[in-house]
Design a protein that fits this description.
Number of helices: 2
Shape: elongated
Strand content: over 45%
Structural class: mainly beta
Radius of gyration: 19 Å
Order of helices and strands: HEHEEEEEEEEE
CATH topology: Porin
CATH class: Mainly Beta
Distance between the termini: 38 Å
Largest sheet: 8 strands, antiparallel, barrel
């Protein structure tokens, strides 16, 4: 038990040190659409999903930013025939948290930027037939965006993860709009 408390205390100290060394800190919200690919596309019948969440932008100067985030992703699959002539939907959702490294090409938080990051997502799959399943997996992301002004940016990215233990690759293209408060 003492190890867990020591680990949490160490994480809080590290995070506070990372925040304290940032030149500016901005909080914001993001939302967007996900286009599923591969296994995820088959599971939700090619239906688009949506994502909403929040983030903190920790800008360190010379174009370097760390962006911790939390989000919720949801896909509502198409109607599929079930047992006894009934129809139902498969849904897939995920709660996630992670951090992205952002590099602004103009060496200030404006204009074109590149991003890559890691996250941990807890996926829930509620199929039309059978029991629901849950899986937590590492998510990788990479993309590019354009920060229009101090508050608004648009971003496109590719996400790679795993939503089921076997044949459940969670690959998606994501289009986001972020608003910094």
């Amino acid at each position: 038990m003492k190890r867990i408390h020591l680990g949490i205390f160490s994480a809080v100290l590290t995070l506070s040190g990372v925040c304290a060394s940032a030149q500016t800190v901005q909080f914001g919200v993001q939302g967007g659409l996900n286009l599923p690919l591969g296994d995820l596309d088959k599971k939700v019948d090619g239906r688009q999903g949506f994502v909403v969440g929040g983030h903190a932008g920790l800008y360190y100067g010379n174009g370097h930013e760390l962006r911790p985030w939390v989000d919720f992703t949801y896909y509502n699959g198409g109607w599929q025939p079930g047992v006894g002539g009934t129809f139902g939907k498969s849904t897939v959702s995920a709660f996630g948290a992670g951090a992205d490294y952002v590099y602004y090409t103009e060496t200030r938080p404006q204009g074109i930027y590149l991003t890559m990051g890691l996250g941990l997502q807890n996926w829930n799959v509620n199929p039309n037939q059978g029991p629901s399943t849950s899986k937590t997996s590492l998510t990788l992301a990479a993309g590019a965006g354009y920060r229009i002004n101090r508050s608004v940016s648009a971003e496109g990215r590719v996400l790679l993860g795993q939503f089921q233990a076997n044949s459940g690759q969670a690959t998606a293209l994501q289009a986001l709009v972020s608003i910094r408060l």
